[in-house]
Design a protein that fits this description.
two-stranded antiparallel sheet; alpha+beta; 190 residues
Length: 190
């Protein structure tokens, strides 16, 4: 049996996820105050239970190698689990939007859709904004291209889906959520 996957220098979840910590909301796009990249968490031994329990999709999906670690591939894979029931797999593109045509990503998304998995594509929304996302599994052009095993049409359909996310109007988080987010006093430098 191989060693379990280790986060190593990756701190993507510490920055790019929104979560409640110590009674406050840490917004996506703001580095957790306990993160000490590239060493990891500064309070690893006593970190909150949420952090102890969270593992990105790279950890959960055994077929994904080291090149899929989020800080390496600039794609954060999250298992959508509202109410504790897995609803699908979300691929959040963190860096260059051209990553959408990274062949391992294209193939993996295609495999999941063929297998009937609910698949989502999203982008970071920015500090204080909701992340735009699109549901890929019912995208007719994408499904048809995958069925035909047409790589060019598949990547074109994925680019079109990404464009929907890019064009989606910036939507602020609800006021109550923004007010509950004192951990955002220092927005990230872009």
């Amino acid at each position: 049996m191989s060693d379990p996957k280790r986060c190593g220098a990756c701190s993507v979840c510490c920055k790019d996820l929104m979560f409640e910590m110590d009674g406050a909301l840490k917004l996506a796009g703001v580095m957790c105050p306990h993160a000490t990249p590239p060493q990891g968490c500064g309070i690893h031994q006593t970190r909150p239970s949420l952090c102890r329990a969270y593992f990105c999709g790279w950890h959960h999906l055994p077929s994904l190698g080291e090149e899929w670690r989020p800080d390496q591939c600039e794609v954060l894979i999250s298992l959508r689990a509202p109410d504790g029931v897995t609803e699908g797999i979300d691929f959040t593109l963190l860096g260059d939007h051209e990553r959408i045509i990274w062949l391992p990503l294209v193939r993996y998304i295609a495999t999941l859709i063929v297998d009937g998995a609910p698949v989502y594509l999203s982008l970071p929304g920015g500090v204080g904004y909701q992340s735009p996302w699109v549901y890929l599994s019912d995208n007719k052009a994408l499904k048809d291209a995958i069925t035909r095993r047409d790589l060019d049409a598949t990547t074109a359909a994925l680019k079109a889906a990404l464009q929907i996310c890019i064009d989606y109007p910036k939507t602020p988080l609800p006021q109550a959520m923004r007010e509950a987010a004192p951990l955002t006093s220092e927005p990230p430098v872009e």
